[in-house]
Structure formats: structure tokens, C-alpha cells
UniProtKB/TrEMBL annotation, chains A, B:
This is TetR family transcriptional regulator. InterPro entries: Homeodomain-like_sf, HTH_TetR, Tet_transcr_reg_TetR-rel_C_sf, TetR_C. Pfam families: TetR_C_11. Residues 10-29 bind DNA. PROSITE patterns: HTH_TETR_2. Coiled coil: none annotated. It comes from Williamsia limnetica. Transmembrane segments: none annotated. Residues 1-47 form the HTH tetR-type domain. One of its GO terms (molecular function) is DNA binding. Keywords: DNA-binding, Transcription, Transcription regulation.
Length: 172, 172
């Protein structure tokens, strides 16, 4: 899938590479989109737990660094590109991908609610929106340019989200 | 293309819908990716000129509103999705898409350089990066969720970019 996208993913090839009979693969998933749905729930469940550094800045920088590492990874980067591309024209994949991000955002949202309790973020800040703001510039660069992401991009993504949170822009 | 993506775009169909001979279309473009490249340069050239409201806030809100309208448009929204998806697996399209965004960012960058001259943005702010920050959360939501963008999302995208600019995060 990373090599040729969802449309290039053939369940028969998957069976060959997994060394199992193709009936097994077809009976279990039926379509490439269903297989990707399972892959995404597994990735959501197994992905790194949120940080708890004691400061909102420390936590959001850790989140940005994780997104940077994921998108820059030789295997995961192309995989995410392929899944996002597939989601644009396949509803099953779109809903699985949305669920993946919802799960990851829910994992990291307590960084913001803890910060509110500490007085480190404005009362009423929507923690999900605040966490998504960290990823936004990294994904935008990843998907609309051919420039490689750098650790400095991740630093700035975290700092920009912190500035927007401090300005009260994510209050409901 | 909006209906079925770049891989579903057949030059013979294009010729039929345009009411011209298919040789004309093949001789002019040769491949669907080349046709999309021309489409993107035309879109970049014909897209709305930048705002000049006299304030950075006014200009960035106008930029965010334009991105919102484009991505929410019944025809342009699916077209951008299809082009971004195609860019993930086709180098010609990726480079045409990057050139499209570079052109649009260059059109709007003077909003930031003018703001610097007026003392409305920190000295040394990278105008291109600042403009891209406005689009980022809108594209991120557009591509990774099934939630429709709202005018409030555009307002917040502009305000978040303004907060990050004021914090000096786009200084070179």
C-alpha cells in the first residue's frame, strides 16, 4: 500500500506476502478497504501514549515531534499518504481514517485539560481542537509540498498552537 | 476528475465531453497528469487577487474566507481532493500542485510584508510561511475528517495565524 496506494493493494498479493492462502485473506477482510480499516484501528491502539511532562509546552512539543517522526518515517510516511489519498474517494477508508485521528486526539487531549487545571491554558479551551492545531501545519506541508519536514517545523507547529491556545482561540 | 479522481480521468472522455476529436486532446496533453498540470497553472493565474484591507487581520481573514469557499465549493472541493490524492502517487501532479500553492502564496505574501512596513507584524517575519499557516488547519480538517468546514473554522484559522505571527514564530 505504501508503494502503490490503496488502488494498487491486491488481497491476493497480501496473501502471498503473508504466506497464507488467499481464501483466508478474502474471508477475513473481503476488500482492501476493510483491511485498511483494521490496520488503522490497530495503529490507533498501538500508537504512542500521550506525554505528561508537567507543562503544556512540553506535551505539545512531544506531540509535534511524534507527528514529525511518523510523517518522516520511510514506511509510515508513504502509508499515511496512501491512506489519506484513498480516503478522498472511498467512504469506508475515510471513516476509518477519521476514527484513527479521533482516537489519537482523544489520547492526547488530557494534556490540554490538565493544563487548564494547572492554569496553564484558558478555561473552556476545547482540548481536541487544540491538539489538532499542532498537526495541521505538518500535514499541510506533507500533503501540498515536496519539501521534507524538519524538526524545526515541528517546533514551530507546537509553538504556533501554544500561541493560539494562549490567545483563547479554542474556547468553545 | 472531481467525480472519480485522476486515475478515473480518461482523455477520451475529456474529448467527448469537450466535443472535440480525441487526437486533439492526446496531441495537446498526452496524459491526464499533463492536463491537470495545465489546469493548475490556469487556476493559479485566474484565482482571486490578494486582499489589501489595510490591516493584517483583515487580509488574513479574507485569505481564510477564500480558502474556506474554495474547499467548500461543490465543484472545487472534490477537485482539490482529487488533485491532492493524485499528487501523493504522481510526481508530475505533485510538482504542479506545489507550484500552484507557491503561486497563490506569492500572491498573498505582500499582505504580510506590508504589515511589517506598517509595524503590524514583527520585523523579519517570513511572509510565505505566515500565509501558509492560515490554510493549514482548513486543509487538515478537509483531508482528515468528514466534518464540513464552517465560516467559524476560517475565522479561527486566521486568528490562530495572527497569534503565531504576533508571537514572532515566523521570523527567519
Amino acid at each position: 500500500m505504501a508503494a502503490s496506494g490503496l488502488s494498487g493493494l491486491d488481497l491476493t498479493d497480501v496473501a502471498v506476502r503473508a504466506g497464507v492462502g488467499k481464501t483466508t485473506v478474502y474471508r477475513r477482510w473481503g476488500s482492501a478497504a476493510n483491511l485498511v480499516t483494521d490496520l488503522l484501528s490497530e495503529m490507533a491502539a498501538e500508537s504512542s501514549p500521550r506525554s505528561d511532562t508537567g507543562s503544556l509546552s512540553g506535551d505539545l512539543h512531544a506531540n509535534a515531534a511524534l507527528v514529525y517522526r511518523t510523517l518522516s518515517d520511510e514506511r509510515q510516511g508513504p502509508l499515511f499518504k496512501a491512506m489519506i489519498a484513498a480516503a478522498t474517494c472511498d467512504r469506508v477508508t475515510a471513516s476509518a481514517l477519521e476514527h484513527f485521528y479521533d482516537t489519537r486526539v482523544a489520547e492526547w487531549a488530557p494534556c490540554v485539560t490538565d493544563a487548564i487545571s494547572r492554569g496553564d491554558a484558558p478555561e473552556g479551551t476545547n482540548s481536541e481542537s487544540a491538539i489538532r492545531q499542532v498537526s495541521a501545519p505538518l500535514y499541510y506541508q506533507f500533503l501540498t509540498t515536496t519539501k521534507r519536514l524538519t524538526p524545526a517545523d515541528a517546533e514551530r507547529a507546537a509553538d504556533a498552537a501554544l500561541a493560539a491556545i494562549a490567545a483563547g482561540l479554542f474556547r468553545n
